[in-house]
Amino acid sequence: MKSRLMIYLLVFAAVGLHAQQVTFRGVNHCGIYPNEKNLLKTWPAGGPEKLWVADDAGKGNSSALACDGFIYTAGLTEDEQEEQLTCFDLSGKKVWQVTDGSGACFAHPTIFDGILYVRHGSALIAYNIKQ
Fold this sequence. Notes:
Distance between the termini: 38 Å
Helix content: 10-25%
Strand order of the largest sheet: 1-2-3-4
């Protein structure tokens, strides 16, 4: 019994060490990501270099979620009548965009096991994004 428990603990520890961080603000939800490398120690006077801007991400207050080489965000359409979910690659190029749902758009996309979850108004919608 003890050896079985030890095997389970080792497997869970190994999986946890190699899991990608997708929780809000990091492991302890404090905005500190200890495994990140080559980050600025001090900010330049004019701020960091702006790499790109995506103007077609929708209106709203949703944060962006970066996972497995893509960035996901939710927002309202230009006429503010429907909600949209947008996926960008890491260079800022739009990969896809779906319009789905209505209502306030303050949701933050969440990914678990290849399924992207986002709240649109009163609905919770799941998208299969497995590659």
